Amino acid sequence: MKYQLFGHTGLRVSELALGTMGFGTEWGWGVDFESSKAIFELYTHAGGNFIDTANRYTEGSSEKFIGEFMKADRDHFVLATKYSLKDRNGDPNFAGNHRKNMMRSVRESLKRLQTDYIDILWLHIWDFTTSPEEVLIGLNDLISRGLVHYIGISDTPAWRVAQANTIAELRGWNKFAGIQVEYNLINRTAERDLLPMAKAFDMAVTPWAPLAGGALTGKYLKGEKGRLPETSKRLNERSLAIAQVVVAIAMEMGCLPAQVALRWATQRNQTVIPIVGATKPAHIQDAFGSTGINIPEEMLKRLNDVSAFELGFPGDFFNEPGVIDVAYGQTKHLINMRARN
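The structure assignment produced for this chain is given below.
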């Protein structure tokens, strides 16, 4: 496996991250300790070093399992976990972005992970009650104490991430180096503002659900059942049409549909590191194959065309011929736009 730089930092992480939300059976669909260990070892033996978990995953079992798996060589791994989501019902301060929950959550994660530090701490979801200054000061305190090395942010509006990173830049604080978003061929809406924002701030993008809950593997075209409800946006007429094109291209390339879907996500003009979850060793083994293929331009166009969506305002407005005419005086084709896109 090859490696990518984690955003604007010098940290080297695998081109695929191992998602561990299914490590543990508390939620009724994950895998036990031994099966989780088999998946973990398969990933690490292939050269993977980027492990993604969270305080909430399987009520803490995911972190406990990972702590056991990596303790013999802790410094080798790039360990990412998250805070923000609840650890207890009925107590408002056991969830949220605020400093009290941040410090408590990190302290408990360190215990479960059997480690002295977290390589990347993600803010899991924006709570709309805590100021960016409070979040940033708390995260900087964790970094200055050596408990956290780098910070990222997940499931947060682009304008809020941009505001936070601008504040951090002006005050000399640590900036968010990565962002987690849902991003796949079925849901490309992150291209409206989240991906351009991440590129502008030199942030790594780590998509969750890069296979759209299995919809892009083609299994639902065969009538197989999974955890997705029939009303899911990933199982409508549009999503099935996208999956059909993914399957067709995979057949033409002689690879698996999952590999095509993953590779499409990484063939962007910026750093994209998919988070690949697995409940069977075969799932992670299949994902590895995506790193050895390259989708030709003609096939990329077919994928982009079938998954096209409306950018909305102002994205579509910028692409209107009349707007391009008045904004560039009929000279846009003469200007090298690459450095600004």
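Interim note for the steering committee: The CA atoms of residues 328 and 334 lie 10 Å apart. The radius of gyration is 21 Å.
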